[in-house]
């Protein structure tokens, strides 16, 4: 009852201002949600790439342990080089993703 009387007595411009404030807050929440979703997607892709690099390094070091002195693997833009001294994974931008040993 009290709220009905309050809204009836308010000037229409106040009602419009309240609606604009509510829409602004809603737009900020939606924008924040979109940004967080994008960041989570980027982080997931990076973690998947790092996991692939680690698995490829393990595969290359396993081959070295089986007797190959030098192993080079290249898959999905990740290049692996492994020797008896160590192994490393490098992406297409020459950024080192994983290093094992003292290569």
Question: Can you characterise this structure?
Answer:
This protein has 103 residues and is of the alpha+beta class. It has one domain. Helix content is 60%, strand content 22%. The chain is built from 2 helices and 4 strands; from the N terminus they run ααββββ. Strands 1-2-3-4 form a 4-stranded antiparallel beta sheet, with helices on one face. The longest helix has 54 residues. The radius of gyration is 28 Å and the shape is rod-shaped. The termini are far apart. The relative contact order is 0.10.
Entry summary:
This protein is of the alpha+beta class and 103 residues long. Helices cover 60% and strands 22% of the residues.
H/E series: HHEEEE
Report the principal-axis shape.
Answer: rod-shaped
**Strand arrangement across the biggest beta sheet:** 1-2-3-4
Measure the end-to-end span.
78 Å
